[in-house]
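To: structure subgroup
Subject: Chain for Friday's discussion

All,

I'm putting the inputs and outputs inline so they're searchable in the archive.
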Amino acid sequence: VLSSCWKRKQWYQRRVRGTKETELQKHIERVKCVDWAPNTNRISTCAGDRNAYVWNLNAETGVWEPSLVLLRIERAATYIRWSPAEDRFAVGSGARLLSVCFYDNEHDWWVSKHIKKPIRSTILCVDWHPSNHILAIGSCDFKCRIFSAALKETNDKPEISGWMPKLSKFSALLAEYETQGWVHSVKFSPSGDRLAWAAHDASINIVHMDSKDSVIRSLTPSLPLLSIIWASEGSVVCAGHDNYPSLYNINGDTLSAGTRLDVKEKKAGGGMSAMARFQQLDRTGADTKDSTLGTTHQNAIVELRVTATGGDGTCTQFSSVGMDGKMVLWNLDALASSIADLKI
């Protein structure tokens, strides 16, 4: 499990019991994002110091060693994600550009190519298409964009699809969508046929590659959403400043009302009468009213991640990380059996 330390300008790798296993110190500013490539066992980090590092585990010494990444940016790096094939990664930044990084064997470092136009503000989120040659970004200019990420340096041979009707060179803009707020999270469906993004206006937006001009947009009654993932090809899970995750189903051209996944049983007999409360206040000088929220997270959920999938690619378990310092695992199969009318 990875977590970034917001004040000490470093991040930790932790075991299940929470004991610190190792501490990687290279960044000199706040670590903004961390991503792990599970198949190649490489970790990438980016920070406000305008740098990114790729960490490789030395099998002999058991030490994580950093590799140099040439980002060539003038503002803080904000987001980092490995591609599905784990041969490249994308780094968003405040420099109004996206860096797509790949390994240079000749010089033994990671080099980057930039996607600049028409990005006009800080990039907040990035996600890769399963094909490994297309990526989507969300930024502070109220736009969600899809670009071609095919690299001639790695001899890419992208396939034609609904997102890329014809072979397009690197950095070609394939689609652009406007929202009414910052785009906090963007995610391709498991098949790659759909794209979903969540914006600061508490909206959920979904588009299919065969009808790119028709966007399913739903303004939720919740507070701004910060993260979105796919539970299946027909449903998404969102979370944000409401402190709990909710599931939404796609019904044709509409999005059904969200089902709250964080449902707690109410405690019986836990109330206090008005007279007892005044007596307590007179005796101790303080009101003992419980201020704990009725949710597992006590602050905003900043990120959701799929941690387990079934044979058909549907999500069976996901994790949530909140500003309260908690990381919670959610089992969708168990939730489906305990919550009435929950359809995934």
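Points worth raising on Friday:
The radius of gyration is 22 Å.
Residues 7 and 154 are 38 Å apart (CA to CA).

D.
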